[in-house]
Amino acid sequence: MSTRIGLFYGSTTGNTEAAAELIKANLNQFTVDLFDIADTELTLTENYEFLIFGISTWEYGGLQDDWESRWESLAQQDFSGKIVAIFGQGDQVGYDEWFQDGIGILHDKLTEQGATAIGYWPNSGYHFTKSKGLSENGSEFLGLSLDDDNQPELTEQRIDDWCQEIAAVLQELACETA
């Protein structure tokens, strides 16, 4: 399959980077180009029809530093016609009122700019108070939710399952355009 995916992530502690690498490995039937946004211009997203973004939520609902520094650049881009999926890292115990806010903030920005989002994830199995990363009805996250601080043993299986869903959607889209 000739589908190319641009996978852009920001990582401070290495957890989001490790997840990005696992996602790339799981989507090995596609060409996945991996970019750390700390040293990558987000204008490179223009080269891809399908994008995956990795973000973590910091402290009281803040964006990870690399995302914060690239936010203005992101806000100037047109994502019309782009298919996007988001994964996020968060701490549901220490920051239960802001768990996965980064997913929601990024999701809203991308969809405001024309992107079509896929890869929503059930919110079962998590224990938190509030999140901007939930769908309107609260039943699912607006992307894959990971918590390597409190549930590291679930990360690999969650990524495997999510990547199967992403791959199925991409294969369906490829068939529709063929």
Summed up:
Helices cover 34% and strands 22% of the residues. The protein is α/β, with parallel strands linked by helices and 178 residues long.
List keywords for this structure.
178 residues, alpha/beta, Rossmann fold, seven-stranded mixed beta sheet, two-stranded antiparallel sheet, 9 strands, 34% helix, 22% strand
Provide a descriptive summary of the structure in words.
This protein is an alpha/beta fold and 178 residues long. The chain has one domain (4-177): Flavodoxin domain (Rossmann fold), CATH 3.40.50. The protein has four helices and nine strands. It has helices at 15-26, 65-75, 101-112, 152-177; strands at residues 4-9, 31-36, 50-58, 62-63, 83-89, 116-118, 121-122, 140-141, 144-146. The strands form two sheets. Strands 1, 2, 3, 4, 5, 6 and 9 form a seven-stranded mixed beta sheet that branches. A two-stranded antiparallel ribbon has the order 7-8. Helix 3 (101-112) links the parallel strand 5 and strand 6. The mean pLDDT is 93.
How far do the termini sit from each other? 11 Å
Number of helices: 4
Low-pLDDT segments, ≥5 res: none
- Largest sheet: number of strands, sense, barrel closure: 7 strands, mixed
Based on secondary structure, the structural category is alpha/beta
CATH fold-level label: Rossmann fold
Secondary-structure element string: EHEEEHEHEEEEH
Mean pLDDT: 93
In helices, the fraction of residues equals: 25-40%
Specify the CATH architecture: 3-Layer(aba) Sandwich
Overall tally of structural domains: 1
* Fourth CATH level, the homologous superfamily: Flavodoxin domain
Please tally the β strands and state the result.
9
For the CA atoms, what is the radius of gyration?
A: 15 Å
- CATH class group: Alpha Beta
Strand portion, in percent?
A: 15-25%
Globally, the shape reads globular
